[in-house]
Design goal:
The protein has helices at about 10-15, 55-65, and strands spanning about 5, 35, 50-55, 70-80, 85-95, 100-105, 115-135, 135-145, 145-150, 165-170, 175-180. By secondary structure, the protein is mainly beta. β8 (about 135-145) and β9 form a beta hairpin.
């Protein structure tokens, strides 16, 4: 299993903080992820800043959840600290279909990562909303029908953003964690 993640250069990381850059694809033999970190509570998601982070624990978690011998490319972003931390992992293009790609959600950090959800048919942007459910932030993901709110039910986030308990919302407040700008251009 080879994992490939996006590694922004320091200049690109600074540009990501301004929400205006595309990270470069890192080589599969030297993977690294990008993670947005914030010590502020999730309710203050607007304070999220991007910074490059290499996290082998995320690699291991993704491989355990989705490893099928193929090269996996993903963008990872996190918010919070310790047990309150959530990490969003957007898998592409190997885990994409006509309606979107797969989003994995983990709680905790380091070797204490706990799977909190696997949602398919997700499009970007993926946002952390200013509301929460059962101690975890609500997530906003795009679908063909609009932005769907994914609420944590105490065990997991919804597996499909187009059916209940997920629901389409308008005017939800939050911070974009993964956008089209974070994804490399399609291979020619």
């Amino acid at each position: 299993m080879i994992l490939s993640r996006l590694l922004p250069t320091p200049l690109v990381a600074l540009a990501l903080m301004a929400c205006s850059a595309e990270p470069a694809a890192g080589p599969a033999s030297a993977p690294a992820a990008t993670t947005a970190d914030s010590a502020a509570p999730v309710a203050a998601a607007a304070a999220v800043q991007a910074s490059p982070v290499t996290d082998p624990a995320v690699d291991r978690a993704v491989q355990a959840a989705e490893g099928d011998g193929d090269t996996l490319t993903y963008v990872a972003r996190g918010i919070g600290d310790g047990d309150d931390r959530i990490t969003l992992v957007y898998l592409f293009p190997s885990h994409c279909g006509n309606a979107g790609c797969t989003l994995l959600v983990y709680g905790g950090e380091g070797d204490n990562l706990v799977p909190l959800g696997r949602t398919t048919i997700v499009e970007t942007p993926i946002r952390v909303l200013s509301t929460s459910s059962n101690g975890r932030p609500d997530l906003g993901v795009m679908t063909g029908e609009g932005e769907a709110l994914l609420a944590f039910d105490g065990q997991t986030y919804p597996a499909n953003p187009t059916v209940a308990p997920a629901r389409i919302v308008t005017d939800a407040q939050g911070t974009a964690m993964i956008t089209d700008a974070d994804l490399p251009p399609p291979a020619e």
